[in-house]
Design a protein that fits this description.
Blueprint (H helix, E strand, L loop, with lengths): L4 E2 L24 E13 L4 E2 L3 E8 L2 E4 L3 E4 L3 E5 L6 E16 L11 E4 L4 H12 L7 H19 L2 E2 L6 H10 L7 H7 L4 H12 L3 H19 L4 H7 L5 H12 L4 H9 L1
Parallel strand pairs: 1-3
Antiparallel strand pairs: 2-8, 4-7, 4-8, 5-6, 5-8, 7-9, 9-10
Helix pairs in contact: 1-2, 4-5, 6-9
């Protein structure tokens, strides 16, 4: 999409005026700046972009969202669109869409990419409440609107786990796979391929949800199981190393010491002294 147009929030018909916050301070953490709903065909000639984050919610109908990639639109999903991402919606039939422009410091930690969200947890119903509140432009509902928007963002992130497109990473499946097959010769490239994403995406999302890189997570699983084997069996260090995925006993010993602060012979000695 080589040509695009900039659409400032203040120039859109759904812009929310400061008068709605009369007598109160607008939230600096999160506030809606625009809310616009449209039911019909979506056939914009040119894509557009905004200065802030935009929440897109589809109430009915189906279509496509064209950005740096093309993703489906429908009642089951929504998207958080980052600032300055050129995009447009397309549909051959009627599609009921709500756009909410967002601003505030709570958005600063979001990854600057298209985020897919799951509406199965009531996101659509809460988005409809926000929209109905924004339609009361003659009333001083700004504080209420800020509160609803904060709940909406929390629900959105809880629903989608802020997973970048394309599609969510089956994180539970990858964790279970590591626990079941830690004794194999596993590589992150193979794991990412197994779960349908790039190595970079797999690393990023795995670290986001577990707090550690998948390589470190796998190492912890292996060492935890090695400690159990050395406590409950009479296997040698070399045998334990092989069982938990290390062909080189010397390398296994170094990793074991790094993780536990002690050499792998210590649990065996404790076992034999009883």
């Amino acid at each position: 999409m080589s040509e695009s147009k900039h659409l400032p929030w203040a120039r859109l018909p759904g812009y929310l005026p400061e008068a709605m916050w009369a007598g109160a301070r607008r939230s600096r953490e999160l506030t809606p700046v625009m809310a616009q709903r449209y039911r019909g065909r979506h056939q914009a000639a040119l894509p557009s972009w905004h200065d802030g984050w935009e929440l897109l919610v589809v109430f009915s109908g189906r279509g496509l969202l064209q950005a740096d990639t093309t993703v489906p639109l429908g009642p089951a999903i929504a998207y958080l669109i980052p600032p300055r991402l050129v995009h447009r919606e397309l549909s051959d039939a009627d599609m009921d869409v709500l756009w909410i422009g967002l601003a505030g410091s709570l958005l600063d930690d979001l990854p600057p990419r298209l985020l897919r969200l799951d509406q199965a947890r009531g996101l659509g119903a809460l988005a409809r409440q926000v929209w109905l509140c924004t339609e009361r432009r003659a009333s001083r509902v700004g504080v209420e609107l800020d509160g609803l928007t904060r709940s909406l963002l929390g629900r959105a992130l809880a629903s989608g786990d802020a997973v970048p497109t394309p599609g969510p990473l089956p994180l539970d499946g990858s964790i279970e796979y590591l626990h079941r097959h830690y004794g194999r010769d596993l590589t992150i490239v193979d794991l990412a391929r197994r779960f349908g994403c790039s190595e970079r995406h797999f690393n990023r999302v795995f670290r986001q949800h577990t707090g550690v890189a998948p390589v470190r997570y796998l190492r912890r699983i292996r060492i935890e199981n090695a400690r159990k084997l050395m406590t409950c069996t009479q296997f040698s260090v070399a045998e334990v190393a092989a069982l938990v995925g290390y062909d080189d006993p010397a390398y296994f010993s170094r990793v074991f010491r790094q993780e536990t602060g002690a050499p792998p012979t210590r649990p065996l000695r404790v076992q034999r002294s009883r």
